Structure to design on (289 residues):
């Protein structure tokens, strides 16, 4: 079954004549007759009933015509969606690391939905390695991560440098210098997190020995810190979102370097208007950070 067959069937049904249909389709009548017969053989039903010199659509043909119209309409809509200058539409699968999803993206996601109501956004979070795998496997159209992965099939766009903030509760005492962390429990995301790696490197430089406890949840980390159980280092975006929840203080250190965040996508995925519109909004929103 081909689209050209469906169109021929539709025009013949509307005109009630193969001759008139051939004039509209700029096609010889015998070609239309043969294509309609092939369609009837494939469907196993007669689509038309001969009546004098004309054709009357059969009951089965009327049923099939409603589906043919839907199919042809959807194809026209699809062509329009892919035409140059068309508004972004369709499904967009985006992923992000938890810190970006929590601290930087909520307002942007809302703005994107307002700007592009024709796009159905599917948003998920994960660690950067899983997000990269999903982009490479075409499960995600793009992802926000904090590691510049060098895979040859990845394209990337620099977004912003995320400043790191050391957070603590007054219950644990004042934290003014790196030395004040000596012996205090630290709560961080598990190994592989670039923010944890930056903190570990900073602690090594200052020769600080403190146990780092794995917690894969910013909500839990903030709760532990707020209770005075220990300290943590979080992205500035996360701190700004939750600084007024609980009794949490934040402090920055010049030698605790910020982490570059990126938007990545599969270089073989081809044009994707919704993804490109999302990337443009990311760049516009984060250009001041």
């Amino acid at each position: 079954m081909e689209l050209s067959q469906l169109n021929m069937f539709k025009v013949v049904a509307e005109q009630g004549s193969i001759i008139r249909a051939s004039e509209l389709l700029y096609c010889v009548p015998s070609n239309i007759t043969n294509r309609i017969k092939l369609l009837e053989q494939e469907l196993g039903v007669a689509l038309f009933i001969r009546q004098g010199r004309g054709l009357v659509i059969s009951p089965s043909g009327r049923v099939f015509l409603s589906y043919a119209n839907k199919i042809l309409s959807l194809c026209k809509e699809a062509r329009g969606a892919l035409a140059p200058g068309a508004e972004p539409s369709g499904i967009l699968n985006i992923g992000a690391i938890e810190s970006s999803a929590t601290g930087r993206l909520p307002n942007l996601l809302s703005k994107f939905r307002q700007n592009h109501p024709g796009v159905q956004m599917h948003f998920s979070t994960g660690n950067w390695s899983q997000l990269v795998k999903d982009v490479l496997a075409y499960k995600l159209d793009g992802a926000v991560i904090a590691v510049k992965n060098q895979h040859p099939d990845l394209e990337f766009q620099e977004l912003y440098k995320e400043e790191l903030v050391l957070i603590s509760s007054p219950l644990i005492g004042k934290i003014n210098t790196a030395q004040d962390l000596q012996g205090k429990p630290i709560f961080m995301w598990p190994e592989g997190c670039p923010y944890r790696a930056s903190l570990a490197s900073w602690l090594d430089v200052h020769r600080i020995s403190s146990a780092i406890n794995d917690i894969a949840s910013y909500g839990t980390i903030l709760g532990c810190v707020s209770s005075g159980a220990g300290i943590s280092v979080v992205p500035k975006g996360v701190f700004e979102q939750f600084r007024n929840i609980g009794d949490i203080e934040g402090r920055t250190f010049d030698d605790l370097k910020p982490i570059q965040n990126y938007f990545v996508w599969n270089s073989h995925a081809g044009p994707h208007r919704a993804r490109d519109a999302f990337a443009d909004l990311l760049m516009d929103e984060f250009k001041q950070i």
